Amino acid sequence: MSWRLFVSEEHALVGASGPIRLASCAPIGGGVRNALGVVNMSVPRDFAPCDLDELARRRLVDAHLPLDCAVMFTAARIENAVLSQRGEVACAITAGLSNAASIGHTSPCNALGTINIILLIDAILSDACLINAVQSAAEAKCAAVMDMGVFVGGERATGTTTDCVAVGSTQRGKHHEYAGSGTVLGHTIGRLVRRGVRRAVALQDGLE
């Protein structure tokens, strides 16, 4: 796969040799659009909400990274990122469960602790397929957290309150219309994310 990964103490950048088609819930540059990459940006554990757009822009410039990126934030150590690849799918994950939550049960809060998932697929995906891939990644993330037996208020945790997923495609190679669990692409995403989340949490929190 013609993709690139840049990792420092403060950033993890996943991109391709050219623009990618992206679907993400990233707080900066999210949505469905064309972009040059996805950056997982480290913030301190005592980080207080601020002008995230300006923070992201300044740090991208300082790191000589492209401005046209989706940006997500994490208090996890970037060096604990789990990187994996299977066929046309590459994956980068950071995770911490200090802010574990059970969707629909845990009250909303702004505590730190998040699971950030970046997938880059060296193939042609329709926008609907990109969204389907985000769905599969989210399902696999929930399954991974449940595998670890984390409970919040008597309920099984499904993630944290600030999880983020980004899926990019190079828009070349094989064409995909679907990425659910019944497809080879969806199955691959599920395997990489489910295993990657468990490994990332083990590295960050010592929980397996």
From TrEMBL:
PANTHER family: ADENOSYLCOBINAMIDE AMIDOHYDROLASE (PTHR35336). Pfam families: CbiZ (PF01955). InterPro entries: AdoCbi_amidolase, CbiZ. It comes from the Archaea. GO terms for molecular function: hydrolase activity. The keyword rRNA-binding does not apply. This is Adenosylcobinamide amidohydrolase. The lineage of its organism: Archaea, Methanobacteriati, Methanobacteriota, Stenosarchaea group, Methanomicrobia. Keywords: Hydrolase. The keyword Protein biosynthesis does not apply. It comes from Methermicoccus shengliensis.
